[in-house]
Amino acid sequence: MNGKDAKEISKFLSLILRHAPQTIQLQLDENGWASVNELITKSNQFGKELDEEILDYVVKNNDKKRFVFNEDKTKIRASQGHSIEVELDLKEAHPEHFLYHGTVAKFLEAIQKEGLQKMSRQHVHLSRDKETATKVGSRRGKPIILSIDAPKMIADGYSFYLSENGVWLTDHVPVEYIKF
């Protein structure tokens, strides 16, 4: 499988496992897990050629580790980023350092007024390093990196969670914790 094919499959899995499983009539459980066999069967019925080998390759090689199998590889889910309601059973975590968020200029005015909002997702996504935040922000144009005072937020009672793929999650980042 080449990188272009893997990227196309990854985008398809993001759609199906994070936002719209109904596209292929796939059932996710309350924790966002889908049966690998059902995913393969229904994807193939809708014209996407998938098999266990392809899924394994995409899960292992996705640069953002967006997907994960359960222990016996009978189920698959997205690590985070859902716009549909799922319970990921994330454990509260406490970052001991600043976190970062990549954005672009057109969103700055709203962020300066309202802070970082989760919008259609379940959480605001934050990165542990500026490099990752830069990659995220550059998907929409010239990136602007915001620094988030996570230790201060924790001291003030806000909660953070760490997804399986290392993305820090929180419900909202008020303006006073953002360094522009």
From TrEMBL:
Keywords assigned by UniProt, alphabetized: NAD, Transferase
Function: Removes the 2'-phosphate from RNA via an intermediate in which the phosphate is ADP-ribosylated by NAD followed by a presumed transesterification to release the RNA and generate ADP-ribose 1''-2''-cyclic phosphate (APPR>P). May function as an ADP-ribosylase.
Annotated EC: 2.7.1.-
Family designation: Belongs to the KptA/TPT1 family.
GO terms for biological process, alphabetical: tRNA splicing, via endonucleolytic cleavage and ligation
Organism whose genome encodes this protein: Flavobacterium sediminis
Annotated InterPro entries: Ptrans_KptA/Tpt1, RNA_2'-PTrans_C, RNA_2'-PTrans_KptA, RNA_2'-PTrans_N
HAMAP family linked: KptA
Cleaved signal peptide residues: none
Higher taxonomy: Bacteria, Pseudomonadati, Bacteroidota, Flavobacteriia, Flavobacteriales
Gene, per the UniProt record: kptA
Protein name: Probable RNA 2'-phosphotransferase
Any one GO MF annotation of this record: NAD+ poly-ADP-ribosyltransferase activity
